[in-house]
Design goal:
Length: 119
């Protein structure tokens, strides 16, 4: 989890799990990207955007809302949203392959970096 504050040294801790190494590595990368994304969402839109997973969860309980859709049948899976598993599921490899930072979140990252363009 990331309550929007990365560790003091901005590191993520890799906890060995029960998966084989390749799956654990992929899962770690996806979770790390998601957790880093919380910092971007918190900066750009506050607790409801970040802890609320862009409106897909209750910000405090982290439970999906009744309006939260299941995973999309095809195409991109929003890295920063939760999906309702009771409505539709995807397998591990599909989640790894199609999870992506959405364009709006990339724009939020660029905006929050406060880049100053040289003339
Ligand atoms: Zn999250």
């Amino acid at each position: 989890m990331n309550p929007a504050i990365l560790g003091i040294d901005a590191s993520f801790i890799y906890n060995k799990g029960a998966f084989v190494a390749t799956q654990a590595d992929m899962d770690f990368k996806l979770v790390a990207a998601h957790e880093f994304g919380h910092s971007v969402l918190m900066y750009a839109g506050g607790i409801f955007l970040s802890w609320g997973h862009k409106g897909s969860t209750n910000p405090i309980l982290q439970s999906v809302k009744s309006t939260t859709p299941g995973y999309p049948e095809k195409g991109a899976i929003d890295l920063m949203k939760y999906y309702d598993w009771s409505k539709s599921r995807v397998d591990f490899m599909r989640r790894m392959k199609d999870s992506t930072a959405m364009e709006i979140d990339i724009k939020r990252l660029i905006w929050s970096s406060q880049i100053k363009w040289l003339k």
